[in-house]
Amino acid sequence: MAGNHFCSCPLPGEWMKGKVIGSGSFGNVHIAMNKATGALFVVKSAVSCPGLQSLENEATILEGLSSPFIVQCMGKELSKDSNGDRKISIFMEYMASGSLSDVAEKFGGALDEEVIRLYTRQILCGLKYLHENGIVHCDLKCKNVLLGSSGHVKLTDFGCAKKLKDMKNKRGLEGSWQSVGGTPLWMAPEVLRNEGLDYASDIWSLGCTVIEMATGRPPWSDEVSNPVAAILKIACSNQMPRFPSHFSREGLDFLDKCLERHPKWRWTAEELLEHPFISGKSVSNSRIDGSCSPSSILDISGMYDCDYDSDEPGSFNEDESLHINRFSTRHCIQRKGTDSRQQAEIDLEPLDNWITVRSAGQF
């Protein structure tokens, strides 16, 4: 299996399960040990139908990947529990330092900009690799980026990931679009509007993840506390999540390039790797400070039902194509001052936690 250079899948009975170290909408994550070698690894397991679908999708996506920026999958095991129900377990490499969310919490909730640059560069390398292989992660956030002890990070949790070729082949067939999932506060506007999915959706989520690393809080959390209001604001307004006030000019411009509301104007992962915030290269003032790009205008006529927990299927807009963003030179994309970053106050009841949404029964 691709990507499994350092260990092999343990055979049934040759490994033992340890304590729970995480959980999600799919099931539980346990630390485990190979009894033959003593090596530690992680076991993700599920019994419920939605959990089985999620883990099977994750295993299918990961088995064809081999990158130092993607968590390695060692294999999977199919079995039955004590009740005779089907069960799946997937074996993955163990990243001892946990997620970026865990790390940020240990260091006061937010990370230094210099560290954010390092982590973001590696995340971009992982996204570039995925996109070159036709895959959209769909659920990028700090909890889904794992850190090794030497400072290297890897993307994980591919339960919502999609192969665009498969989605394009299934367009018009029941189940193609409504299976798209993610975590609403990190999701791109066009995804929440059910207009389509492509690599640019991951770039929006990357911008939200950078804000999360810099502030220690999810994007939009300071502005909107009600889930329905948040989805409406992300999907149907021209506003942006609040940018970190302490960020450098390069950092703010990087976020501008990620959080362009029109997906066709977002920079690609390859382009963002050359951005001065990541590369450290000097850049002309016209590239950073230019303001000749028109603002996007969102058409929200016929707005869909924005209930947060809705499982109602959406549909692809047949006029929208699944595209690869090919804009290689953009010298003047900038928000109109700070007004676009400031959010209206909305006094609504708070929600305790935001979770990954796995629609079409993928909760």
UniProtKB/TrEMBL annotation:
<comment type="similarity">
    <text>Belongs to the protein kinase superfamily.</text>
</comment>
<dbReference type="GO" id="GO:0005524">
    <property type="term" value="F:ATP binding"/>
</dbReference>
<dbReference type="InterPro" id="IPR008271">
    <property type="entry name" value="Ser/Thr_kinase_AS"/>
</dbReference>
<feature type="binding site">
    <location>
        <position position="44"/>
    </location>
    <ligand>
        <name>ATP</name>
    </ligand>
</feature>
<dbReference type="InterPro" id="IPR011009">
    <property type="entry name" value="Kinase-like_dom_sf"/>
</dbReference>
<dbReference type="InterPro" id="IPR017441">
    <property type="entry name" value="Protein_kinase_ATP_BS"/>
</dbReference>
<feature type="domain" description="Protein kinase">
    <location>
        <begin position="15"/>
        <end position="278"/>
    </location>
</feature>
<protein>
    <submittedName>
        <fullName>Mitogen-activated protein kinase kinase kinase 17-like</fullName>
    </submittedName>
</protein>
<keyword id="KW-0418">Kinase</keyword>
<keyword id="KW-0547">Nucleotide-binding</keyword>
<dbReference type="InterPro" id="IPR000719">
    <property type="entry name" value="Prot_kinase_dom"/>
</dbReference>
<dbReference type="Pfam" id="PF00069">
    <property type="entry name" value="Pkinase"/>
</dbReference>
<keyword id="KW-0067">ATP-binding</keyword>
<keyword id="KW-0808">Transferase</keyword>
<dbReference type="InterPro" id="IPR052751">
    <property type="entry name" value="Plant_MAPKKK"/>
</dbReference>
<dbReference type="GO" id="GO:0004674">
    <property type="term" value="F:protein serine/threonine kinase activity"/>
</dbReference>
<keyword id="KW-0723">Serine/threonine-protein kinase</keyword>
<dbReference type="GO" id="GO:0007165">
    <property type="term" value="P:signal transduction"/>
</dbReference>
